[in-house]
Write a structure and sequence with these properties.
39% of the residues are buried. The strands form 7 sheets. The protein has a 22-stranded mixed β-sheet, with no helix packed on it. A 7-stranded mixed β-sheet has the order 1-4-6-8-10-12-14. It is globular, with a radius of gyration of 33 Å. The chain folds into 4 domains: 1-160 and 167-184, Alpha-Beta Horseshoe (Leucine-rich repeat, LRR (right-handed beta-alpha superhelix)), CATH 3.80.10; 185-291, Alpha-Beta Horseshoe (Leucine-rich repeat, LRR (right-handed beta-alpha superhelix)); 310-465, Alpha-Beta Horseshoe (Leucine-rich repeat, LRR (right-handed beta-alpha superhelix)), CATH 3.80.10; 478-601, Leucine-rich repeat, LRR (right-handed beta-alpha superhelix) (Alpha-Beta Horseshoe). A hairpin with a 6-residue loop joins strand 2 (67-69) and strand 3 (76-80). The protein is mainly beta. The chain is built from 3 helices and 45 strands.
C-alpha cells in the first residue's frame, strides 16, 4: 500500500513539474510574440524624433516607451504611441498582441488600410486611430471586437458605408468617426447601441434621414452629425434622449419644424441646427419652440440661416440664465427685441442680422456682460447710443449695412477689449473719434461707405496689433498719417500730399490700396522692403517719377495697379511685372516697356 502511495505521489509531482514547465514556456512564447510584434511595428514606421529608441532586445518590453504591461503576466496591455509623428503602415503582427486592451496611435502619420489580423485583439476596449491618414473601407471585422467601448477614427480618410457589424458592439460608449469620407445612411439598427454616450459622424458624406431609432440611445450625451447631407425631419422622438447635453445637426438639408420635444432634454447645454437652408424646400420652418426657453442649462443656441419666423420671447433671459451665445441671423424673425437683456448675465455673443426685428439700441446696451460678439445687420434705423460704453467686455461689434446715422460715438474708444469694429454701409457722419485708435487690441476697423469727413486721425499708428483698415467711399481729406500701421484700404478718400516714408517699414503688410485719391510725389523705393506685400494699388492719383525696380524682388507680390498717374521711364521686367497686363499701366505720362504692354516706346 505504501508503495502504491509512493508511485501516485511521484506521478502527481512529475505532472505538476511538467505543467509548470509548460506554463513557463507558454509565458515565454507569449512575451516573445509581443516583443516580435512591437519590433515589427518599429520596422514598419519612420520615427523622425527617435521616440522608439529604447525598443531593442537589450531591455524588457515593459520598459519600452509607450508600452504598459500587465503586472501579473507581463503581457502588453496598453500601447500608446500618440503624438510621436510616426510615419508608415500598421503591420499585421500587431494582431499578436492578444492581451491588448488599449491601442492609441492618434496624431501620427499612419496610412494605408487596417490589417485584418487586428480582429484577434478580443480584449481590446479602446481603439484610437484619430488624426492619421488611414484609408480604405471600415472593415466589417471591427464588429467582432465585442469588448470595444471606445472606437475613435476621426480625421482620417476612411470610406464606404457604416458597416452593419459595428452595431453588434453592445458595449460601445464612444463612436467617433468625424471628418472621414463615409457615405450612405445611418442604419436603423443604431438604436441597439444602448450604452453609447458619444456619437460623432460629422463632416462626412452621409445622406438619408436621421433614423427614429436614435431615440433608443438612452445614454447618449453628445450627438454630432453636422456637415453632411442629411434630409427630412428631425425625429420628434429625439426628446426621449433626456441625458443629451450637446446636439450638433448644422449644415445639412434638414427640413420641417424643430421638434418641441427637444425641450424634454433638460440637461442640454449646446444646440446647433444652423445652415439647413440649401434650398427653399429644405429649411426649418415655423417658430422657435417655446419649450427651448425652459432648458435652464442651455449655454449656446445656433438656429441661424433657416426659415424660422415669429419673435424672440420677452422672458428669454429668465428661462435661460446660463445662455452664453444666441445666433439667430438669417431667418425671418420679426417684432420687438426683448427688453430684459440685462438678465442674460452670461451672454457673450448675440447675432441677429438679416431679420425684420426692431430694437432700441439703448436697450441692447444693457448687455453688460456681452463679451464676444454683437451683430446686427440690415434692420437698425437709429443712432449708436452713448450707452454702448456699458459693453466693456465686447470684442467684436458688427453693425454693417443698417441705416445708422449721426456720429460715431467717442465712447466706443473706451471699449478696451474691442478687436473688430464693423460699421460699413451706413449713414454715419462726422469725424473718426481720435480715442478709437487708443484701443490697443484693435485689429480690424471697417467704416467703408459712410459719410465720414475730416482729416485722417494722426494717431492710428498707435495700434501695434492693427492689421486692417477700410475707409473707402467716405469724404475724408488731408494727408496720410506718418505713423500708419497695418493692412490698409484707403480708396476714394480725396487724400492729398506725399506717401509717408514710414509705409515702407511695414514689413507684415499684405494689401495696400491708396487708389482714387490725390496723392503726389514718387512711389517709395522702400516699398521693395515690404516683402509680405501681395497686392498694391496706387491707381488714379498724381504720382510721378519712375517705378522702383525694387518691386521686382517681391516673391509674394501678385497684383500691381499703377494706372492713371504721371509716371515715367521703363517698366521693370522681373518679378510680378512679367505677368501684368496693360491695364496696370494705362494712362500715365511717359512709360516704356516690352511691346505686349502697349505703352509708348
Amino acid at each position: 500500500m505504501a508503495n502504491l502511495w509512493f508511485h501516485f505521489s511521484f506521478s502527481m509531482f512529475s505532472f505538476l513539474c511538467y505543467l509548470m514547465v509548460c506554463l513557463t514556456l507558454c509565458h515565454t512564447n507569449f512575451t516573445k510574440n509581443d516583443e516580435l510584434a512591437l519590433l515589427a511595428l518599429k520596422n514598419s514606421v519612420r520615427d523622425p524624433f527617435n521616440h522608439l529608441a529604447n525598443w531593442s532586445n537589450s531591455s524588457s518590453i515593459c520598459n519600452w516607451v509607450g508600452v504598459t504591461c500587465d503586472s501579473e503576466d507581463e503581457r502588453v496591455s496598453v500601447l500608446n504611441l500618440a503624438h510621436m509623428s510616426l510615419m508608415g503602415t500598421l503591420p499585421s503582427q500587431v494582431g499578436n498582441l492578444s492581451s491588448l486592451f488599449e491601442l492609441d496611435l492618434h496624431n501620427n502619420n499612419f496610412h494605408g488600410e487596417l490589417p485584418k489580423e487586428l480582429l484577434q485583439l478580443h480584449k481590446l476596449k479602446i481603439l484610437n486611430l484619430s488624426y492619421n491618414e488611414f484609408d480604405g473601407k471600415i472593415p466589417a471585422w471591427i464588429g467582432s471586437l465585442f469588448s470595444l467601448r471606445h472606437l475613435i477614427f476621426h480625421d482620417n480618410s476612411f470610406q464606404g458605408i457604416i458597416p452593419p457589424s459595428v452595431l453588434n458592439l453592445s458595449n460601445l460608449e464612444t463612436l467617433d468617426w468625424n471628418s472621414n469620407l463615409i457615405h450612405g445612411s445611418i442604419p436603423l439598427e443604431i438604436g441597439r447601441l444602448q450604452h453609447l454616450n458619444i456619437l460623432r459622424i460629422a463632416r462626412n458624406n452621409l445622406s438619408g434621414n436621421i433614423p427614429p431609432t436614435i431615440s433608443s440611445l438612452s445614454s447618449l450625451e453628445l450627438m454630432s452629425l453636422s456637415f453632411n447631407s442629411l434630409k427630412g425631419d428631425i425625429p420628434e422622438t429625439i426628446g426621449a434622449l433626456t441625458n443629451m447635453k450637446i446636439i450638433y445637426l448644422g449644415i445639412n438639408k434638414l427640413s420641417g419644424q424643430i421638434p418641441r420635444s427637444i425641450g424634454n432634454s433638460t440637461l442640454l447645454q449646446e444646440l446647433q441646427l444652423n445652415d439647413n437652408n440649401l434650398e427653399a424646400s429644405s429649411k426649418f420652418s415655423g417658430q422657435i419652440p417655446s419649450t427651448f426657453f425652459n432648458i435652464s442649462e442651455l449655454q449656446e443656441i445656433d438656429l441661424s440661416w433657416n426659415n424660422l419666423s415669429g419673435g424672440i420671447p420677452s422672458n428669454i433671459c429668465h428661462g435661460l440664465p446660463n445662455l452664453q451665445a444666441l445666433l439667430l441671423q438669417g431667418n425671418k424673425l420679426f417684432g420687438a427685441m426683448p427688453s430684459s437683456w440685462r438678465q442674460c448675465k452670461q451672454l457673450k455673443t448675440l447675432r441677429v442680422r438679416n431679420q425684420l426685428l426692431y430694437s432700441n439700441l439703448v436697450i441692447l446696451s444693457s448687455l453688460l456682460h456681452l463679451g464676444h460678439r454683437l451683430e446686427f445687420e440690415k434692420y437698425l434705423n437709429c443712432r449708436i447710443p452713448k450707452t454702448i460704453i456699458n459693453l466693456t467686455m465686447l470684442q467684436w461689434l458688427n453693425m454693417n449695412s443698417n441705416n445708422l446715422e449721426g456720429l460715431v460715438p467717442m465712447e466706443i474708444g473706451n471699449l478696451q477689449k474691442l478687436e473688430i469694429i464693423e460699421l460699413s454701409h451706413n449713414k454715419l457722419s462726422g469725424s473718426i473719434p481720435l480715442n478709437m485708435f487708443n484701443i490697443s487690441t484693435l485689429k480690424f476697423l471697417d467704416l467703408e461707405s459712410n459719410f465720414i469727413s475730416g482729416n485722417l486721425p494722426s494717431n492710428f499708428g498707435n495700434l501695434t496689433s492693427f492689421f486692417e483698415l477700410s475707409l473707402e467711399e467716405n469724404i475724408l481729406t488731408g494727408s496720410i498719417s506718418k505713423a500708419i500701421g497695418g493692412l490698409l484700404d484707403l480708396q476714394y478718400l480725396n487724400l492729398k500730399g506725399f506717401i509717408p516714408t514710414t509705409l515702407g517699414g511695414l514689413n507684415n503688410l499684405q494689401d495696400l490700396s491708396l487708389a482714387h485719391n490725390n496723392l503726389q510725389g514718387n512711389i517709395l523705393e522702400s516699398f521693395g522692403n515690404m516683402l509680405s506685400l501681395v497686392n498694391l494699388d496706387l491707381s488714379k492719383n498724381n504720382l510721378f517719377g519712375k517705378i522702383p525696380k525694387s518691386l521686382e524682388l517681391h516673391i509674394d507680390l501678385k497684383y500691381v495697379n499703377l494706372s492713371y498717374n504721371k509716371l515715367q521711364g521703363e517698366i521693370p521686367n522681373g518679378g510680378v511685372f512679367k505677368n501684368l497686363t496693360p491695364e496696370s499701366f494705362m494712362m500715365n505720362q511717359a512709360l516704356c516697356s516690352k511691346p505686349q504692354l502697349k505703352v509708348p516706346p
